[in-house]
């Protein structure tokens, strides 16, 4: 059997580029993209991608060149997920909330050949480009990217930069017969995504065509996405390439409903008008939908909308409320290094007989591995041995499989830390339940150690969220004279609700172990977050360090 050889017929490199070619053939006349008054079918979307890929080659973009883009969820950003790799290049989607310094840092580190900028972000991108030029001695050089503006496709603004290049002109100038460069090795890079940097400097995560293909296939299977879905882009595409659903919607011949701003009005309108079946989002978006006033909502009772949520563990009470509103929630866990979601909380039919609160507790777990992973475990990283599957013993979540990243770009030190003994270390602390489902307890840096007891900030947050007045909560460590550190809770209250620190603390004492009760409740208007909904706990820790417990009075004060 070893003498049987691979050939062009039985071995084709795995790549999600095959999905759009199939969509253009099988679903040619089905609507592919909806954005305001702009509609395309799959035949048109494929042709636009071919044209753009040709124009990129005309701009001297070659294999492994990086093409960066700073844009919201607009048709151009969707098309670039196919057109850029068709040209043999690597797509780098930037977080739209980056400041000028971070934009310059990514352009420099990635050595981007081309930089697409949505008209709305031209001012901040221009600042970043000036910083990049200043770093180069104040003179433009051939190492700086070619800049192309993405104007509004529905209502053009005319905004341009120095070279006057504009996205739609590249589409017009491109060759519709161009089918892209041949992919010889599925290990080639398809995407470069920079981590959000909530706990450290952003790192450039390189994903392969193979990883993107396998992760996409696993997610559309694990989420049971049937053919011809209508998918609402409430999740930024810059976040792990839209958790691979940029490619996945094409694979199922679906419709991409694009919105520039993730507001309750826009989401409810699109769900109602286009009969949305699927959407992805961080828990912060669930709150936007849940807290919307009646005049901002639309009827969505035609069927339940399937939501895949992740990015931050959603409280059980939030999941239960969303189900009552008409959304069917599936919880996922992933990270940029895993090319999107790595675990899904697959639902079991026997759970349908359980009470709603029990179901919500099960849904809050991160779940089991997607099919592209070979293994997942929770380990004591000192010994690299798995912890007992008892739902109590904590360790670090580790992964291995072909959908993981190739590694961090030009960062050998971080690669050595991330990969150990054949495993990828996620930095997330969790447990495994007897049924094999993983549940995150915290980031390793967010565990609070009080008097030798490990306190999961997520458990305290989950309990706080069940209070009738609490909209959001984030828990971090603060100094304690006896226990070393103790929990401090930052709380956002719902509109038109009133409560006191004393009331919240009394509630905590009745709903959690005494050692877990926060020593301080700090009411805030908003929590600092990344665009993907992750709370920037390092910023809250800075504030919490200013609080201290008087050893004699056992009351919380602020350092002066």
TrEMBL record:
Residues 21-409 form the AMP-dependent synthetase/ligase domain. GO terms for biological process: phenylpropanoid metabolic process. Signal peptide: none annotated. This is 4-coumarate--CoA ligase. Residues 459-534 form the AMP-binding enzyme C-terminal domain. Pathway: Phytoalexin biosynthesis; 3,4',5-trihydroxystilbene biosynthesis; 3,4',5-trihydroxystilbene from trans-4-coumarate: step 1/2. The lineage of its organism: Eukaryota, Viridiplantae, Streptophyta, Embryophyta, Tracheophyta. Keywords: Ligase, Phenylpropanoid metabolism. Pfam families: AMP-binding, AMP-binding_C. Belongs to the ATP-dependent AMP-binding enzyme family.
């Amino acid at each position: 059997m070893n003498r049987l050889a691979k050939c062009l017929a039985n071995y084709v490199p795995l790549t999600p580029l095959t999905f759009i070619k199939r969509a253009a053939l099988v679903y040619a006349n089905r609507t592919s993209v909806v954005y305001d008054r702009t509609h395309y079918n799959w035949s048109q979307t494929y042709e636009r991608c071919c044209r753009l890929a040709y124009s990129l080659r005309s701009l001297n973009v070659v294999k492994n060149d990086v093409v960066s883009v700073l844009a919201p969820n607009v048709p151009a950003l969707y098309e670039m997920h196919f057109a850029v790799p068709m040209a043999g290049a690597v797509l780098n989607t930037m977080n739209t909330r980056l400041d000028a310094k971070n934009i310059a840092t990514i352009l420099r580190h990635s050595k981007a050949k081309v930089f697409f900028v949505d008209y709305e972000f031209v001012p901040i991108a221009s600042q970043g480009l000036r910083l990049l030029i200043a770093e180069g001695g104040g003179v433009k050089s051939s190492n700086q990217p070619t800049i192309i503006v993405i104007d509004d496709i529905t209502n053009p603004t005319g905004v341009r930069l120095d070279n006057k290049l504009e996205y739609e002109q590249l589409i017009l100038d491109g060759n519709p017969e161009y089918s892209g460069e041949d992919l010889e090795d599925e290990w080639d890079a398809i995407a470069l995504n920079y981590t959000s940097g909530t706990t450290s400097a952003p790192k450039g995560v390189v994903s392969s065509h193979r990883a993107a293909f396998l992760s996409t296939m696993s997610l559309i299977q694990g989420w049971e996405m049937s053919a011809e879905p209508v998918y609402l882009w409430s999740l930024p595409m810059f976040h792990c390439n839209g958790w691979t659903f940029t490619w996945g919607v094409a694979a199922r011949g679906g419709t991409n409903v694009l919105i520039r701003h993730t507001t309750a009005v826009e989401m409810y309108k699109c769900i109602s008008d286009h009969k949305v079946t699927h959407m992805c989002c961080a828990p912060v978006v669930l709150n936007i939908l849940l807290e919307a006033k009646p005049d901002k909502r639309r009827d969505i009772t035609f069927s339940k909308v399937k939501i895949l949520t992740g990015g931050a563990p959603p409280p059980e009470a939030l999941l239960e409320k969303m189900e009552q509103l008409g959304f069917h929630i599936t919880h996922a866990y992933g990270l940029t290094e895993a090319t999107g979601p790595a675990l899904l909380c697959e639902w079991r039919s026997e759970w349908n007989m359980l009470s709603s609160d029990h179901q919500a507790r099960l849904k809050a777990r991160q779940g089991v591995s997607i099919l592209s992973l070979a293994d997942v475990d929770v380990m004591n990283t000192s010994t690299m041995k798995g912890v007992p599957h008892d739902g109590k013993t904590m360790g670090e979540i580790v992964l291995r499989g072909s959908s993981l990243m190739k590694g961090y770009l030009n960062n050998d030190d971080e690669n050595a830390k991330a990969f150990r003994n054949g495993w990828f270390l996620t930095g997330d602390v969790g447990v495994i339940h007897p049924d094999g489902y993983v549940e995150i307890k915290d980031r390793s840096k967010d565990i609070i150690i009080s008097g030798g007891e490990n306190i999961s900030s997520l458990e305290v947050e989950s309990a706080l969220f069940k209070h009738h007045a609490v909209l959001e909560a984030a828990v971090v460590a603060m100094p304690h004279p006896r226990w070393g550190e103790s929990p401090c809770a930052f709380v956002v209250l719902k509109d038109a609700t009133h409560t006191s620190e004393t009331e919240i603390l009394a509630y905590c004492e009745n709903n959690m172990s005494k050692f877990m009760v926060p020593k301080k409740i700090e009411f805030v208007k908003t929590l600092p977050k990344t665009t993907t909904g992750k709370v920037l706990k390092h910023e809250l820790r800075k504030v919490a360090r200013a609080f201290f417990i008087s050893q004699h009075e056992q009351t919380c004060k602020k350092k002066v």
